[in-house]
Write a structure and sequence with these properties.
F-box domain-containing protein, 15-stranded mixed β-sheet, alpha/beta, 3-stranded antiparallel β-sheet, about 30% strand, about 25% helix
């Protein structure tokens, strides 16, 4: 037998016609295209012509750059400081059987800086400069986080969303003082089960986020909300009470909260009791047949018919509470009969009423576990 028979047959991808190369590329996964692009300038240029556009790119802590092309699969590049051979893994997401998570792990002496180089490469290769961020203060040291924050100041990538998980008030202060990239939405999460009160400095403030979502298990501290000068605040508060919301409304009326807010929504563990929340707060009940106001939000436009209004003491702003109850499609929509009846009943008594329905007694204008206000 000839010794040539023992040599595997090979051919150069670079010699293929472009149409044939496109067919070959359909058999390559994102990791293989990435490796192909790193061989030479020529292969990098060719890889860019055959690669698909990523629908999403994430940078997560401690050190991972993730890309996806659909909702079924994701591909993570994970440099690690632990020596060892490159590894490839596949995990199925138990929450969605059709979703697979692919991982490529490789050794790097400096994984924090290496993942930024990988991110820069995949942004160029997979034709998407929009990056979503997800950081955890417990899994990354602060110097690494600062280097990641600074990278987005020095590069033109857009960051529509950032998630930051914090353990305490110091983490919040560190994030606000060091992250400087404008983003559409911030998701701020706190460790579960903490009883430590968040003590924040008075001068802490940022206007980088249009919308802020807060998940807090610490005791309630409304100073946290005053940090953010965005227009939308959404909160999941584990220890929030109706008395806390009453205090919040009185603070708002007195001008002690941020004047930039337009839509504030609290989710709470207990039941929303509007009578307790509005205790000592002057409220005006608007006639849904005559008072019709339009709301224009980022994702939709609609109208509010009637509603319960409270006003700042200096007269500079009005808030409609539980406004989603009065939401209708357009100005010419029929006025719901139940809103007219509620308005007339409350006008007669001058206060929010309880009423019986079967064997159940509930508060009027009740929206269980959620309190919202829209500020005009």
């Amino acid at each position: 037998m000839s010794s040539l028979a023992l040599v595997p047959y090979t051919f150069s991808l670079l010699k293929l016609p472009f149409i044939a190369l496109q067919n070959v590329s359909d058999c390559l996964n994102p990791f293989e295209i990435y490796h192909f692009s790193r061989i030479s300038k020529k292969t990098n240029k060719l890889a860019k012509t055959i690669s698909k556009k990523a629908t999403q790119i994430f940078l997560t802590s401690p050190f991972s750059a993730l890309i996806s092309f659909n909702k079924k699969e994701s591909w993570s590049f994970k440099p690690t400081i632990e020596p060892g051979p490159d590894s490839y893994t596949v995990h199925s997401d138990t929450s969605g059987p059709t979703r697979s998570r692919h991982g490529y792990g490789f050794f790097s002496k400096k994984p924090a800086s290496k993942v930024l180089k990988v991110l820069e490469w995949v942004i160029d290769l997979y034709k998407n400069s929009i990056v979503h961020l997800s950081f955890d203060s417990r899994s990354s040291n602060r110097q690494d986080l600062i280097s990641h924050f600074n990278w987005f100041i020095e590069n033109p990538s857009e960051v529509p969303f950032i998630s930051m998980k914090c353990s305490d008030a110091e983490d919040v202060q560190f994030f606000i003082e060091n992250y400087k990239k404008s983003s559409k939405k911030l998701n701020l999460l706190f460790d579960l089960g903490s009883e430590e009160e968040l003590e924040l400095p008075d001068n802490l403030e940022t206007n980088l986020f249009e919308e802020v979502e807060i998940h807090n298990s610490h005791p309630v501290n409304f100073d946290l909300y005053n940090i953010f000068r965005g227009s939308i605040i959404f909160s999941m508060e584990a220890k929030l009470t109706n008395q806390d919301l009453n205090t919040f409304l009185k603070n708002w009326q007195s001008g002690l909260t941020n004047s930039y807010w337009r839509n504030v929504c609290f989710n709470m563990i207990g039941q929303v009791n509007l009578i307790s929340i509005l205790d000592g707060v002057a409220a005006t009940y608007r006639d849904p047949r005559n008072v019709k106001r339009q709301i224009n939000m980022a994702t939709e436009s609609f109208w509010i018919f009637g509603g319960i209004d409270i006003q700042k003491q200096d007269g500079t702003a009005t808030a409609t509470v539980q406004w989603k109850k009065y939401k209708v499609e357009n100005e010419v929509s029929d006025v719901p009969i139940k809103l007219i009846r509620e308005y007339e009943r409350n006008q007669e008594s001058g206060e929010i009423q309880r009423h019986e329905e079967g064997e159940l007694t509930f508060e009027r204008f009740l929206e269980l576990h959620r309190f919202s206000m829209y500020i005009w």
